[in-house]
Amino acid sequence: MSQSMLTSPYRLRKIDQLRERNIATYLALPQLVAVGDQSSGKSSLLENLTGIPFPRGQELCTRYATQITHRRDVISRITIGIIPGPTAPAEHKEKLESFTKEVHSTEQLNAEFPDILNEVNTLMGTKTPRNPGGIKTFTEDVLKIERCGPDEDYLTVIDVPGIFRITTQGVTTDKDRQLVERMVKNYIRDSRTVILAVLPCNVDVATQEILAFAEEVDPTGERTLGILTKPDLLKERSAKAVVCDLVLGKRRPLTLGYYVVRSRGGDEEDSDGGADLLHRENMFKDEPWTSLPDHKTGIKALRVCLQELLGQIADKAFPKLRSETRRKLTEKQEELASLGPPRQTGRQQQQFLVSVASKFQNIVRAALDADYSTHQAFADDNLRLITEVVNTTDEFAVDFEACAHTYLFETVSKIARPIFSDSEDEEEEDIDEESSTCFDLNLYPDLEGILTKDWTSHQPSKGIMPWITQMHRRSRGVELGTFGPRVLSSAFQEQSIYWQKMATQYLSKVIFSVHKFILGALGKVCYEARILDELISGLMADLLARYQGGMNRAIHLVHIEAHKKPCTLNHYFNENLQKARNDRINKAKDTGQQVVKLDDISSVVNNQSNTQHTAEEIHDILQAYYKVARKRFVDNIYHQAVDHCLLSGPSSPLILFCEQWVLDLSDEKLQLIASESRATQERRQSLQTALQDLAQAIEILG
After folding, report:
1. Which pTM was predicted?
2. Sheet with 31-35: strands ordered across
3. Which of 215, 400, 558, 655 could connect to 500 by a Cys-Cys bridge, CB 3.0–4.6 Å?
């Protein structure tokens, strides 16, 4: 006997225990699986191989997989039980696991087996002639038969229902045919499964569908063993020669090879199993079967082969099963943890949402502090909120300086620049009048009505002096050497007419960034899609109101700056105004001379008309005030509309979803958002079952 046969029974017993606990659902277990057509002679083969009297044709054992185990023990007995399918409900599982029958001889089994199978069929709920009230034709439940005795050698074979092409009216349907095919493929797909392909000799092997199934999962044929049955039906010498060529590896070779066996036929009685088997296998002493090796013919040779083969694959796989089981246990634990705690009661639901809100606020704080090392979520640049807002604000400040005014101010001097000097004072810049939003307005349809739809840009025009002169002529009174107070207000309103459009464009970009961040951060802390959708739905109305609040604050600031009387306490206004006046005089007398006569300065001033002098005065005052007001406005837009209303203020949308928001939810709203869906409940139950099974598997493996 091989070394594997001396060492494997202990391991094989453990593997059977794993299979009985449905560990094959999670791990590939070493196993021998017999597959074939319904007419392949599979039932007769297994009866001769195991000594179990399998019913034939359309009877019970063909409705579900059957696991037959031989195990050496001091007491002779045959035990019959049921292994519930992996998806069996708890109540059904408990009922099946409680079933057990025990007989003490083959004769007793022969006498009681039909009644035992009928009881099994009733418990499983399968429909047969003796149980017409069954609701299933086939089932995932497994019939387990264990034969023990002092003369038994360890062997486990799994028999699955035979595949069929033609349905039987009132018995099977095309849906049943497809179900059996899926069942067969599921059993043979694992890499540690040896496929026992049962092939009748009287059918061309090239047409055998079961070999096509085997090739799908074992294209190299390394774990497929062909078992040729019904050689006694071959009459022509050429047909027998084809079978011999298969066994000798001359046709369609398989790594594990082919065996040819002669089983008891359906109309043959087996009064003396051993003598009858010997009589049937005498045919292999005749030509052409004598050309085959003895270890490739007959039930006994096949049984020895299967015992050694099972021992080999068990010894090879066993050391890896421990590590694979622990790894699978860790995976299931992590998946269960990802579902969060159970959420069946209101308190559990509240605790869950509070935890989600706390995690969300942690991300918010880190995002506002640019502390991107605290959470792996910030690997996504879309969640680096404050960085995106600062970049947007810088772009806004530059664009506002270059484009916000209606007319370019007149260039007075390129040498002596006033305080707060800007590029528009120097020359007209090349500004692209086309503009884009830099984001997809259709991405968040909820923001429609808040975000601006006007994304065109403005290029300041030349001709500020004619415009000021015309405005003065339309508004002048009887003032002597000066102008009316309303002229400057009107001029500033006209010069700042684009402020609101640019401010709302800026706020739209910030609101888009904040909204994108909120939805992204919620997705990082809330893994279940249904809860995420309900949570966003519950927050949306208040979020939109707070976004609108930021936009309204920006519009309010525009109104204060552009539609109120110009006013400032900033001393830079006076300094800029005085410098502009001085620069105008210096520019007029700039002849390249080192000395300027006082009479020349006097003539520059005195030779101006009142209208020209007033227009220049309005220009210089407007320019000095505009610079101060523009910088004040840009600062206020950021501090009040962006930072206070949208980022860190008490009404910021970022702090809406917090623990207090959760605590204020009604019971109905809480249940709507945080209750577990049926799919989650079922998945949680499945994972808990898997953890129990895998924990038991670790105990079994030791």
Report:
1. 0.60
2. 100-103, 77-83, 142-149, 65-72, 155-159, 31-35, 193-200, 224-229, 258-260
3. 558
